[in-house]
Specification:
By secondary structure, this protein is an alpha+beta fold. It has four helices and four strands, in the order βααββααβ. The protein has one domain: Alpha-Beta Plaits. 35% of the residues lie in helices and 30% in strands. The relative contact order is 0.28.
């Protein structure tokens, strides 16, 4: 069962965007995307508040998340969060198939 974690990073003076830029330029984002079990790792910037960056992070299962969290990469990520003084809110979802009653609301 896939698990999606939405992380909302909030900083000041563009620090959340600088964090993302360094995550990308350092190769950390590509390395995470290559990890076994990673299904999605994408950043988005809030239209309403440019100081907020959202990370959508999806994994095949909890075991894949646990391996990721135990990897040395997490120290890199934690150090960058500290460097840019980011604060976070986290939401976690278990992915479910679309309910039949919802299908007519979804345009593909």
């Amino acid at each position: 069962m896939a698990i999606t974690v939405n992380l909302k990073y909030k900083g000041k003076n563009g620090s959340a965007r600088k964090f993302v830029d360094e995550m990308i330029s350092s190769g950390t984002v590509d390395a995470i995307r290559e990890e076994k079990g990673n299904m999605k790792y994408e950043y988005y910037q809030s239209i309403e508040d440019p100081e907020i960056i959202i990370l959508i992070d999806s994994w095949e299962n909890q075991e894949a998340i646990d391996v990721h969290h135990a990897s040395p990469m997490m120290k890199t990520i934690a150090n960058l969060r500290e460097k840019y003084d980011l604060h976070m809110d986290v939401e976690r979802f278990i992915n479910a198939d679309t309910f039949e009653s919802d299908r007519h609301f979804i345009r593909k």
